[in-house]
Design goal:
Blueprint (H helix, E strand, L loop, with lengths): L4 H8 L14 H7 L34 H5 L2 E2 L8 E2 L2 E7 L11 E7 L2 E2 L2 E10 H9 L4 H23 L19 E3 L7 H20 L9 E5 L1 H4 L12 H8 L3 E5 L9 E7 L1 E2 L2 E2 L1 E16 L3 E15 L5 E6 L1
Parallel strand pairs: 1-13, 7-15, 8-9
Antiparallel strand pairs: 2-5, 3-4, 6-14, 8-10, 10-15, 11-12, 13-14
């Protein structure tokens, strides 16, 4: 039965626009419209991922700085097949005699020693799976590259550590524990001193010990490196009674001095401070040496992944002339 629009207008006051096609609700539509139960779960929001922002910039976690190679540089000695290394140390010998026309006395000679060091070769393996790369790629992370960066960082951290502490069980030493080190001088903690006290500790004890060890080969104008921890370096900003800080005093009295900080010089025994003459008459005082730096081995494909080995080798810190290194323990 069609709708009686006139009756609807008279009874309820409902008037439709001229030409409007009025549609009557069917019994099915009526039943759906009058349904009192929700088919879906009540919800007034959207998925949080639609309002989540992901910054495309990757933020790397900082690690302790690796200062040894930065300060002294590195040298390659041997290769990954090297098992030992020997370093000839030559000493001139001789004695003179009173001159005589028929005398054959007096002689000149050479004595040679062959100190030995052993390298330590180490490795790690990079593993990358197809699915993990695809999942990381969905978040805009180059997973394979990041693992290679992690490999380089891990190996260089170990290399730096070997330059400082050497390798236990091998003839492989670090700058803090080489066997020919001369005795340390000692000082009370710099934290308890004013600027003048800190300067006197460096000049009156550490520099004086270097002069004593070298017996005239070094003076205040000789290029030197003062190594200490960042924690201890803070004390160089202290001033004396004339408002002159330790930095200024050192720069004025030792024009060739460079001050460098190494975090590992803060030890359980105390703060280590070293004054080092980098080279004398063309001979380096020490070398930080390696056999290989980041040797990249073959890529091995697995069923749905890849593996690749990386390796390096270290000789640690090779000290040629211990007399040009003066050490102080501040504790």
């Amino acid at each position: 039965m069609s709708l009686n629009l006139n009756a609807l207008a008279a009874r309820a006051g409902i008037v439709f626009a001229t030409g409007y096609n009025v549609q009557e609700l069917t019994p099915l539509a009526k039943s759906l419209a009058m349904d009192s139960e929700l088919v879906t779960a009540p919800n007034a929001g959207i998925l949080s991922l639609f309002t989540t922002y992901v910054d495309p910039k990757l933020i790397d976690v900082l690690v302790k700085p690796m200062r040894m190679a930065e300060i002294f540089g590195e040298t390659k000695k041997g290769d990954w097949t090297t098992q030992t290394a020997h370093f000839p140390v030559i000493e001139s010998t001789g004695e003179v005699s009173s001159y005589g026309d028929y005398s054959n006395n007096g002689v000149a000679g050479v004595n040679v020693n062959w100190p030995m060091r052993q390298p330590y070769h180490y490795q790690l393996v990079i593993e990358v799976g197809e699915k993990e790369m695809a999942m990381a790629g969905a978040s805009k992370i180059d997973w394979a590259s990041r693992k290679q960066i992690a490999a380089a960082l891990t190996m260089n951290k170990f290399q730096n550590k070997s330059y400082i502490f050497g390798i236990e069980g091998l003839a492989n030493e670090g700058i803090l524990n080489y066997k020919d080190a001369l005795p340390n001088v000692t000082s009370t903690p710099w934290a308890t001193m004013d600027g003048q006290g800190v300067y006197d500790s460096i000049q009156g004890k550490l520099y004086a010990e270097l002069i004593k060890q070298t017996d005239g080969h070094v003076d205040a104008s000789t290029p030197m490196e003062l190594l200490l921890s960042p924690k201890n370096e803070v004390n160089l900003h202290k001033t004396n009674q004339y408002n002159v800080n330790v930095y200024d005093q050192l720069n004025k009295n030792f024009p060739g001095l460079k001050i460098r900080s190494i975090p590992e010089f803060s030890t359980d025994a105390g703060e280590v401070v070293k004054l080092i003459v980098r080279e004398y008459e063309g001979q380096e005082t020490l070398d930080l040496s390696f056999t290989e730096k980041m040797r990249v081995h073959a890529m091995i494909p697995e069923l749905s992944s890849w593996k690749q080995k990386r390796s390096q080798g270290t000789f640690g810190c090779i000290v040629y002339r211990p007399l040009f290194i003066a050490s102080m323990l501040v504790s």
